[in-house]
């Protein structure tokens, strides 16, 4: 089984720096190997700075909507908290990364994050199950512990060889080098 690495902010509020950590690790590892994947990014209202949603951004720079607080259209969408999830937009951007990755020469799959919004897509959940079955090396972030258990998150946490790092504001900068070094030394990358 190939090792997988997860960053978690267990018990901490969102905004601790998981995405920033993933972006910095990806930047460092991208100099050594071929990465494929995505991260989520907050979207803030112009002028006010208030968070209005999230976008999904591929490592190659393609961007799509993940969720919005008040969509301009009236389409029915699954709701997570105060946000409506754009399942189709999310799938259009992320599924090719998961399904085609092993053929594209990708050495490390980067997934930020596997959480409630992303798991509104049953196709994403199935693609992740396929990735796990293929034992593809990955770096993934998972959400803080929640009242409702997420089976895919629990499966990621219990993978043989999985290494879980709890991200805090105090350790997030030091984790960039620690995780990059661990991935490199694990001979995970060709």
TrEMBL record:
Pfam families: NTPase_1. The lineage of its organism: Eukaryota, Metazoa, Ecdysozoa, Arthropoda, Hexapoda. InterPro entries: Nuc-triphosphatase_THEP1, P-loop_NTPase. NCBIfam families: PRK13695.1 (NF010248). GO terms for molecular function: ATP binding; ribonucleoside triphosphate phosphatase activity. This is Nucleoside-triphosphatase THEP1. Keywords: ATP-binding, Hydrolase, Nucleotide-binding. It comes from Drosophila madeirensis.
